[in-house]
Amino acid sequence: LAEETLHMVSTLVGASLALAHSETEAKKHKDLAQTDSLTQLYNRFAFDAHLKESIESDEISLIVAMIDLDGMKHINDTLGHQGGDRLLQVFAEKIKHIGREGDHAYRFGGDEFAVIFLHSDCSQANLLYQRFQLAIEKVRKQDFKGVGASIGLASSKECNNDIHEIIRLA
Q: Which residues are catalytic?
């Protein structure tokens, strides 16, 4: 009886460890699927999911910022694609910490980025815009003097929580 009990306990422990390992692997793969490999920011897939989830919760007001780097072609032409990649990485690092805890930055594609600022409204737009300008200034100081950014902001309230409208407006 003791032998059978030990066998059952070891089987249960083994199954529990296998399940924990599978859950860890699944989380790792989900994180990889939502992360841009160059910048380590969330990617467009994660942006779409996070925005939909936040908008559908109704109790969260948010601002979406859409950022398009200006001067990327010049950087690629003068410094090569490695220089362009470095610019994307430097800019990503600057905008990763532009918001508060819970706000997320995304590489939307190419030289386009987005940030979702939760619990924010139009009254904070000027402050957010200034933070982006400061981030661009810091990027310029790291050997990217001609770089700029086109930045658009839109709030969920002014778009009646319409996902497509908030992206379009921003």
A: 111
CB-CB neighbours of 96 under 10 Å = 17
Q: pLDDT digits over 146-161, tens only?
A: 999 999 999 998 888 8
pLDDT in tens, 30-84: 665 789 999 999 999 999 999 999 988 877 899 999 999 999 999 999 999 999 9
Q: Find, among 90, 81, 75, the residue nearest to 137 by Cα.
A: 90
H or E element in which residue 150 lies:
strand 148-155
Helices (H), the chain: 2-33, 44-56, 72-96, 125-140, 163-169
List Cβ neighbours of 137 (8 Å cut-off, separation of 6 or more): none
Q: Which of 60, 53, 56, 54 is nearest to 119 (CA)?
A: 60
